[in-house]
Amino acid sequence: MKPHVICHMLISLDGRIHPSRWTQSPDGDRKVWSSTYERVHETLAGDAWLVGRITMAEMSKADAHPPEGPFSVTRPHHFARRDADSYAIAFDRSGKLHFSKPDVGGDHVVVLLGPSVPDSHLAELTKDGVSYVVAADEGMDARPLLELLGRELGILRLLVEGGGNVNGSMMAAGVVDELSILLAPAIDGALGVTGVFEVPDARGLAGKARLRLTSSETFEHGLVHLRYAVEP
């Protein structure tokens, strides 16, 4: 069974996710909004959190350092740790992420890779103590990947905190069970900027899910916390 998946995001009133472009507010600023977001993250009590490649690259800035071949690696997955208190999971289809240590803030790293990733990259991750899963196909269907993580690592509750493409793909795949949205008193307004959910289908997410409001709460600094159950 896949983990219970909560998409947890801090967004502007127009659904944008990068506070550096947001308008200012007398109620607070992006520092206190982000601090509240992290506090709510803790209360959601996830066993793991998941982001996309670009978000993870901001936290791991190592350069490529593959070991010398020949390479002896394990496919489709390798788990350096199965007993971590929490896991930091990232989609990285082409194997562009590199790590100087096997954790982010103490959370053990697991990378979800596309099938064309070379053995040299898998050998690098193995040497660095990083876990990985190689998807069966380039589509990287989320459900079997999450089911495997639940089965192999005991992940029961996963927080998705990615960019619009990751969030959108998870919604389109029907694996998100709940939304946790912190709405800030700010506006972005820039043209061509990714929102909280984006998919390549011109129809968007129409017909993919129904949202049912389960709670709403006003927080300090002008924030509103909205929670929705995601129904088929």
What does this structure look like?
By secondary structure, the chain is an alpha/beta fold. It contains five helices and eleven strands. Strands 1, 2, 3, 4, 5, 6, 7, 8, 9, 10 and 11 form an eleven-stranded mixed beta sheet that branches. β6, α3 and β7 form a beta-alpha-beta unit. The longest helix is centred in the N-terminal third of the chain and has 14 residues. 34% of the residues are buried. The mean pLDDT is 96.
In short:
By secondary structure, the protein is an alpha/beta fold. The chain contains five helices and eleven strands; from the N terminus they run E-H-E-H-E-E-E-E-H-E-H-E-H-E-E-E.
User: Given the C-alpha coordinates, what overall shape results?
Assistant: globular
The residue ranges in which pLDDT falls below 50 over 5 or more consecutive positions are: none
Order of helices and strands: EHEHEEEEHEHEHEEE
Rg, Å, rounded = 18 Å
Major beta-sheet overview: 11 strands, mixed
Number-wise, the strands total: 11
SSE class: alpha/beta
Number of helices: 5
Short key terms for the protein model shown above:
232 residues; alpha/beta; 21% helix
Describe the protein's topology:
Blueprint: E1 4-11, H1 30-43, E2 48-51, H2 53-57, E3 77-78, E4 87-92, E5 103-104, E6 107-113, H3 119-127, E7 131-134, H4 142-153, E8 157-160, H5 164-172, E9 178-183, E10 210-218, E11 224-231
Parallel strand pairs: 1-8, 1-9, 2-4, 2-8, 4-6, 6-7
Antiparallel strand pairs: 3-7, 5-6, 9-11, 10-11
